[in-house]
Amino acid sequence: MSVASKKEDKAFEEMIEKQQADAKTVAPPAPALPYCQKDMLAIVGTAPTMQGAPYDDPKFEIWSVAQATSYPVFRRYDVLYEMHTAGYWKEAAVLKRLQETKAPIMVMQDEYPEIPGSVAYPIDMITTKYRRYHTTSITYMLAWALHSFLMTQKPYHVALFGVHMEAREEYTEQRPCCEYWLARMEQAGMDVFLAGGKILASQGLYGYENYDPVCWKMRQRINALTQGINIRANEEQEAKLKKHEQIGAVKEAEYWLREAQTGALPSLKPEEKEKMSKDLP
After folding, report:
1. Rounded Cα–Cα distance for residues 250 and 53 (Å)
2. Residue 155 and residue 30: Cα distance in Å, rounded?
3. Per-residue pLDDT tens for 171-189?
4. What is the pLDDT of residue 52?
5. What beta strand segments (E) does 190-258 contain?
6. Predicted structure pTM score
7. 38: which residues sit within 8 A by CB, 6+ positions away?
8. 118 touches 108 (CB < 8 A)
9. Which residues pair with 131 in a beta bridge?
């Protein structure tokens, strides 16, 4: 190993030690939410790969979104997360589901007497010690798993099932946030497994793999055609609005025509009639 490599490894080890020390310094009162109790953790969403989660493997602790209890394939959990506001979970159907679940630990924004097992997420501590960046319930789990590891060395392995981030909303807002926290976890020395989806995935190393000049030109052509389609769609929308304006103008003109034909309009001088005709749409 070169001297440079040894220096890099030592710097990396020092960085991890500092992260662990920072997590433990000036420790606030212990949150009601317990740390992960096992070396291996499965975080489960509701995308198709949720059925492959290690429900029958006792070595795994399982955290999931509360909505997963509505899926027949979801068979076991240790901790559920319901991070929506009361405006959502107090809806009759949702409240009934949460109450009937009787989860041993239901992580929420606060403790609520209506929800058995509800525990407040330590949001102030997490957003003080780490970046204030969360766009989905999953990232609250990832952040707590990271903090748990830095405090207790558990879990060292985190597996995501049913967390794909392939839909448009997820792709633009939720996926980058998940990738940030997963990168923090790997940087801290944790092992990450992804069962499927688009998180931390690409079609190849940029500039090294999957480059083909013909494919590049085809992609450029597709982009140009797509842009043209969007332009035509905007033009069609503008034409539709113009059409409605003209229909409204015709109806207004017809109204005044009927008024004039029935004598409902007051007698106008020739110059007033001429001005009125010019003002008509």
Report:
1. 64
2. 18
3. 788 999 999 999 999 999 9
4. 93
5. 191-194
6. 0.68
7. 59, 60, 61, 154, 155
8. yes
9. none
